[in-house]
Amino acid sequence: MKNTSLFFLNELNPAQRKAVETTEGPVLVLAGAGSGKTRVLTFRIAYLVKEKKVPPWEILAMTFTNKAAGEMRERVESLIGVNAGLWVGTFHSIFSKILRWESELFNYSPDFVIYDTEDQERLVKSIMNDMGVSIQQYPPKMILSFISRAKNNLISPETYSSSAKTVIEDIVSRVYPEYQNRLRSNHAFDFDDLITIPIHLFDKYPDVLKKYQSRFRYVLVDEYQDTNRAQYMLIRYLAKEHRNICVVGDDDQSIYRWRGADIRNILEFEKDFPGAQVFRLEQNYRSTQNILTAAASIVEKNKGRKEKKLWSNKEPGEKLDLLEAVDERHEAEMVVEKIREKVFKKKHTFRDFAILYRTNAQSRVLEDSLRGRRIPYVIVGSVKFYERKEIKDLLAYLKLITNPKDDLSLKRIINFPLRGIGVTTFSRIEKWAREKSLNLFDAIEKIEEIPEIPVRSRRAIDQFYKLISKYIDLKNKISLNELVHTLVDETKLLNIYKEDNSIESRRRADNIREFLAAVNEYASRNKEATLSGFLEEVSLITDVDTWDDKKNAVTLMTLHSAKGLEFPVVFITGLEEGLFPGYRSLESPDALEEERRLFYVGLTRAREKVYLSWSHRRSFFNGENSRFPSRFLEELDSNVVKITVFSPRKATGQFRGIIQHTPEEDSFSPHPSYESFSQEEPILAPGLWVMHQKYGKGRIVNVEGRGIKQKVTVEFEEGTQKKFIAQYAKFTILGENID
DNA sequence: GGCAATAGGCTTTTT
DNA sequence: GCCTATTGCC
Fold first, then answer.
1. Gap from A268 CA to C8 C1', in Å?
2. Is the CB of A625 under 7 A from strand B?
3. A373-390: pLDDT as tens digits
C-alpha cells in the first residue's frame, strides 16, 4: 500500500482493482449483475483524485438515474471529502446545465423550459391541427415517436424531408420542422434536445467543444449498454482529445432498446476506441448460487451477447419458487401470503421485499391485496407525481413565470382556474399572435389591439396578464418558497380542490400540498434556490429517484425500474405469454431477447430468494382471458426451481377458453411440472364441440399453428364459420360428443 | 362560455 | 374499467 489513504483498494478483487487503477486511455468494464460495478466507479473516482491528483471538477461521471448519481456522489464524497466539485449526474441533467451556460449561442433564454412527453404531444397535436392533418388517422404519439427517433439518430428536419417515403413519413417531414420551430420560439427543449443540441453545438463551435474537452479530462459512463446513438456521439466528442473514457455496462442488462438504446455501443466499443482495455467483473457478490444458475439459464438463450460467466462463492441457497394462480387476485394473495409468512417468522421485514411486474397496470390487484392485509407498501412509478393534472397546472404557472415565451404553458392555464376566456377568444389571440409573430404572452399584453374580443374577455385577459407579470417581477425579489405559496393562494389552485369534498379533490389537494413541501425541501437543500433550478430538477426527476428505500415497506415496481437495485426477496409476477414476454415482442426475435434480458435483470435483483408467479386467467381492460405460462419458465434450469402445487382458494371456477400447455415450435421439452396440467386440459382438435359466449354452440373444423399463435376455426349451429386466436377466444370445451 | 354526458384511448418499459 | 378529451346542449 503506497498511501494509507488508499486503504479502500484492499476491498477490491483483482479485476475490480485493475479497472480502478487503469486510469489512462479507453476502458470498458463489463460488469455482470451484482459484481460491484458501483464500487468500481466510485473507487475509480476516488483513486483519480487521491492517487493521480486529478482535480475533482475535471472528472465527469454520467449515470442513468438521478438516484444512481446521488448515491455515487455520496459514496465518492465519503472517500474524498464533501463538496469536492465533482461532476456527477444524468446525461440529461449535465447537459441541460451546459445548455443553460451556452444558451446565448443559440439565442435561448438561460431559463428555458423542458417539455415532458405530455407537453410534446400537445405541441404536436396543435401543429397537426393547424396543418389540417387528421389526428384520428395519424396519432400524434406516433408522429412524435418518429420525430424522436429521427432526433436521436441526428437526422435534421431538412434531411428527413428529403428521404421521406411513406405517407406517414411525409406527414412527419412536415410536422418535424414546425415542431422544432415552436420549441425554439417557446424557448423550450424536449428530452431529446438535451442530448442532441449539445452535439450540434459542438459541431458548430469547436472552441466550445474544446472548452468542455479540457474541462472533463476523465469521463465515466455508467449503464453504458443503455446509451443511444446520440449519447454515444456526445461521449465520443468529449473523450476525443484525452481519450480517458471509462464505460461500465453489461450487455445482458440492456433493456432500453425500444427507446433507442443501441446495444452496438457496448458490443463495438473496442472497435470505436482502438486500444481499449477490457476488464470483466464476473464475481457476483449479491445472489445465491441457485439464483445465478437460474439467471444464467435464461440469458444464455440469447444470441449476440458477449460471453461471460458469473460466479459466486455464496452457498446454493433456496430454490426459486414457482407459484401458479387461478387468476390475478389469487396470484396477488399468494404473493402477499408469502410475505406475511416470512415476516411472521421474523426472518424478514417489509422492506426486504420487492414485487416486480412487466406493466404498471398489474400493480392494482397487488396493492389491493397488500392493503387488505395491512402490509405497508410503496409503489414506484404508475401515475407519476409530476405528471398529475393538478401538479402540471401549477407547474405551468411556474414555467410561464420563469419563461414567458412558453406558449404551451400559457395555453394550459389561461383559463384555469376558469376565468371566462374560452376557445373562441383564445384562438383569436393565437391567430393574431401568429400574424405578428409574437409569443402569446407578448400578444396578451397588447390585448386592446386584438380585434373581435368581447369586453368581458378583454378584462379577464388583462387580469391574467397582470397576474403573471406580477410574479415575473416578484420572482427575483422574494424567496422561492414565498413565491410559490403566494401564487397558490392567489390563484386558488389549492382552494378549488379544498372546497369540493370528493375523494378525487381531496387527493388533488394533498398532491398540491405535497408539491409545496417539495418546494420547501428544495429550498432548504439549495442555498441559492431559484425557480428555474427547481423546475429543471422537477423536469428531470423520475419516480425511482423519489423512492424512499429507508421506509419499512414492500416495494412495488416494474422490472425496468428495478434495474440497479437489490432486495433480499424478489417476486416476479405475471410470467405469462403475451404479458412477459409482452405480446408486442412475440413476433420479433430481437424484442424477445430484450424481454429475456429484462427477466434476467429481475432475477439478479434478488439476494436470497426469488418467487415467480403466473396466472391461468387475467382480466384486461377488454375483459378476461386465459393465459399460457411464459416460455421463460420453460427456459429456466429446472434443477433450481421448486413448484408450489396449484391450489385454488376455493372450488375451481369454470375456465373459459382453453387451458393447455403446448410447447412452442422449437423442441424444448415441456417443463416437467406442467405435465400434470397438460393431461387435464383438453387439446384442441377438429371435431370438438365448444360453447362460445357470443355465438353459442359450435364445432371445431380446423386448427392451425400451436401455442399462443394457435388459430381455431369453429362452425356454429347456424352454419357460420368463425376463426379465433385460441388464447383469446371466449369459449368452453364441451367435449367430443354432446347429446 | 360553462357544464354534463359521452366517446375513445389505454396496458410495455422512461430520461 | 378507468381516465381524459371532446362533444353537445344550456
1. 59
2. no
3. 888 888 887 667 788 888
